[in-house]
Design goal:
This protein is mainly beta. Helix content is 13%, strand content 36%. The protein has one domain.
Length: 159
């Protein structure tokens, strides 16, 4: 009897475009600017993306364009969290010091502030058009496409 083996990687399809955005704005302000300039309708999801048992969380905005079968996601790549430091000074009036820890959703791109993930089934989204629109927004420092196949932690982009 012949043995048939199915590889899970055979069914995983990278049918999305990924655009890195460098921008110092708050997430809701960037979502507003993208809605305004790209003509989309991003809305904040109720739950953020949580990793490592609530060690870090990342905001996510989503719009499902059902007429064109395109799913838009704006994901924060940076999570800053204030924690107590683990230093013991042994003084009488010990006041715990706070340190600011920074976590990244995609660790290979530590300087990227946001990712715009565009999942399109029919391949109708024009990346160059979107990049030109993004470059026209004065608050965005720069934006560029990222090849999802070159990201080691691309599993973080599955939600």
């Amino acid at each position: 009897m012949a043995l048939h083996k199915l590889q899970v990687d055979d069914f995983y399809d990278d049918s999305y475009k990924l655009i890195a955005i460098h921008c110092r704005l708050e997430d809701y302000r960037l979502a507003y600017l993208l809605n305004k300039h790209l003509g989309i309708k991003l809305e904040r999801k109720e739950k953020d993306i949580d990793f490592k048992y609530l060690e870090s969380s990342y905001s996510i905005f989503e719009w499902d364009n059902e007429t064109e079968y395109v799913l838009w996601n704006l994901i924060s790549n940076v999570c800053k969290k204030e924690e107590d430091s683990l230093s013991s000074s042994g003084t009488l009036f010990d006041s715990p010091e706070k340190i600011l820890k920074t976590f990244n959703l995609i660790s290979e791109f530590k300087k990227v502030d946001f990712f715009l993930k565009i999942s399109d089934e029919i391949q109708i989204v024009n990346e160059k058009f979107i990049l030109n629109k993004l470059q026209a927004i004065p608050q965005i420092i720069t934006s560029y496409t990222v090849n999802p196949l070159q990201i080691k932690s691309k599993d973080h982009l599955i939600f």
